[in-house]
Amino acid sequence: MNANGYFQLVFYFAVLLLLAKPLGIYMAEVYEGRSAALRFGRPLERLLYRVSGIDPEKEMRCRSGCRSIRKAWRRSRPILRSIPRSVS
User: Fold this and answer.
1) Do 41 and 47 meet the contact criterion of CB atoms below 8 Å apart?
2) pLDDT tens digits, 30-83
3) Any idea what DSSP says for residue 84?
4) Can you tell me the distance from the alpha carbon of 47 to that of 7, in angstroms, rounded to the nearest whole number?
5) According to DSSP H, which parts of 1-88 are helical?
6) Alpha carbons 21 and 68: distance in angstroms, whole number
7) Is the separation of the CB atoms in 26 and 37 below 8 Å?
8) What whole-number distance in Å separates Cα of residue 63 and Cα of residue 14?
9) What pLDDT was estimated at residue 56?
10) Contact indicator for 18, 36 with CB cutoff of 8 Å
11) How far apart are alpha carbons 51 and 79 in whole angstroms?
12) What is the value of pTM for the model shown?
């Protein structure tokens, strides 16, 4: 391994150590339902629930979950097909 490889390892572990505490605090807040990011993400979550036909208050069984995934896939397929493919 050369110097660049050692530098990348040290850099990776330094970033990992620097992000461990803030990410741990954020995850604890999310699991307790106190996160500000949850408030900002709720409109998107509600939209995704509405598009896929999910009622967040009801418990979902396997069959109804599969049905809602198929419904969301069918609704998003025309949008994804309209995106032109890049030619390489």
Assistant:
1) no
2) 788 776 666 777 888 888 778 777 777 888 788 887 887 888 888 888 888 888
3) P
4) 44
5) 3-32, 36-52, 62-82
6) 37
7) yes
8) 45
9) 77
10) no
11) 13
12) 0.43
Sequence spans of domains, the chain: 3-81
Write phi, then psi, for 21 (nearest 5 degrees). Answer: -65, -50
Q: Nearest CA to 76 among 51, 40, 44?
A: 51
Q: Which two tokens stand for residue 27?
A: 């995850």
Which residues 6+ apart lie within 8 Å of 37 measured at CB? 26, 30
Please say whether the beta carbons of 50 and 42 come within 8 A: no
Per the structure block, which two tokens stand in for 62? 């396997």
pLDDT for residue 87? 55
Tokens found for residue 34: 């106190």
